[in-house]
Amino acid sequence: MAKLVILTGDKKLDKKLQRFARRGANRVARRGLGKALTVLARAMRAEAPNKTMKKSIGKRNKKNKRKGIHEAKVGPNVGNKGKGEKRTPHAAVFILGSKERFTKTGASRGAMPPNDFVRRAAEKSKGSAASAMKAEIRKQIKIEAAKR
To answer: In this structure, are residues 138 and 32 in contact, taking their beta carbons and an 8 Å threshold?
Structure first.
């Protein structure tokens, strides 16, 4: 019968083992968060009012090296947009709306009514995004456990 041996006291070894555990946990969490972002981005594209706005919706899931934390974002004009990708330069005005605007001469240019399709999409897909994230985390935990 094999005996269980526990080794402690070696500071370098303890530090390495803690880093491996933290790395695995971060990898699992990042992948789960990526799945949730995908669900949210699809919902936003479905709610988007026009083709250009649909094409501009993207996602980003990166580590902020200054802060040492992961930041995730989804919405119009987010993420790496290549040559063929569209951007909507005034997406914020379109989504949030604006008060009545005037030129220097005083001529009215009107007000932009808000279109909160981003909030509507987030509310509709909140539950499915959370369940997709949980399912992916469970899947990744099994994969990480099999590696060890």
So the answer is: no
Residue 15 has pLDDT above 50, yes or no: yes
Check if the beta carbon of residue 58 is closer than 8 Å to that of residue 81: yes
Three-class HEC string of the chain: CCCCCCCCCCHHHHHHHHHHHHHHHHHHHHHHHHHHHHHHHHHHHHHCCCHHHHHHEEEEEEEECCCCEEEEEEEECCCCCCCCCCCCCCHHHHHHCEEEEECCCCCEEEEECCCCHHHHHHHHHHHHHHHHHHHHHHHHHHHHHHHC
For the stretch 58-68, pLDDT in tens is 999 988 889 88
Q: Is the dihedral of CA 125, 62, 90, 98 positive or negative?
A: positive
- Domain residue spans of the chain: 17-87+117-143
The sign one gets for the Cα dihedral 123, 124, 125, 131 is positive
Confidence (pTM): 0.76
Q: Which single residue is written with the structure tokens 């695995």?
A: 24
Count of C-beta atoms within a 10 Å radius of residue 36: 24
